[in-house]
């Protein structure tokens, strides 16, 4: 049984520029905060995993003083939580309005994987309400119910830490060598790689310049038959993506795992290609 684990923001849909960024800025305006992130400034903030964490990065001593915010850390955390709740409301409203269409190939690959018996999950640092809103908008409520959803504060350490992917493997009941992650950023790739999961990267306008040396392959999108052919930016795998990425291409990035010889009466142990039992 194989599993397909998707990042959400920038992977399922182009959510950052037209979704999260305006929601952050509207939240800042509503709370009277003296900040509006430009696209370039927000691109820099995307190096931080998690919306609350991006907001908390504002809390320099000068910003706290200028904005009349409490100096106590616990009080600040409560303020950031209020900001983030409002930002999530604004963001999910934009999703409901249809402002964030699915990226090419997502719906097709999801349906192919489901039909082939693959387990499906999303692993994101965004708030769960935001993640579920995008997932249902992109794949439909019926198919979204077939996903294991891991989001927000479900783990204490966010990407690039591997925690959310390790939890995904646990919840899905699959080993790392039977899972493929779909990510759009170096931050997400680092998390999947640290969890031992093969990762395919579909870049977007915010991430095309990043380094993806550990990716199985890198494309500009998963593509669809009726669209222009995808561009393969790098390929370090046995996959051979053509005009669009297929489920067979994703299956091809799974590491080869063979059975090691077992003595009579002992269980067969899965082994790595060099004869060990490490599936990293």
Give a quick precis of the structure.
The chain is about 40% helix and about 10% strand. By secondary structure, it is α/β, with parallel strands linked by helices.
Shape: globular
| Alpha carbon gap, first and last residue | 18 Å
Helix tally equals: 11
Helical amount among residues, as a percent range?
25-40%
- Tell me the number of strands: 9
> Please, what is the average pLDDT?
90
Low-confidence stretches: 257-280
Major β-sheet strand ordering: 3-2-1-4-5-6-7
User: What is the makeup of the main sheet?
Assistant: 7 strands, mixed
Strand content: 5-15%
Computed CA radius of gyration, to the nearest angstrom: 20 Å
Structural class based on helices, strands and sheet pairing: alpha/beta
Q: Spell the H/E element sequence.
A: EHHHHHHEHHEHEHEEEHEE
Describe this structure in words.
There is one protein chain. With 280 residues, the chain is of the alpha/beta class. It contains 11 helices and 9 strands. The strands form 2 sheets. The protein has a 7-stranded mixed β-sheet with strand order 3-2-1-4-5-6-7, with helices on both faces. The longest helix is centred in the N-terminal third of the chain and has 24 residues. The two termini are 18 Å apart. The C terminus is likely disordered.
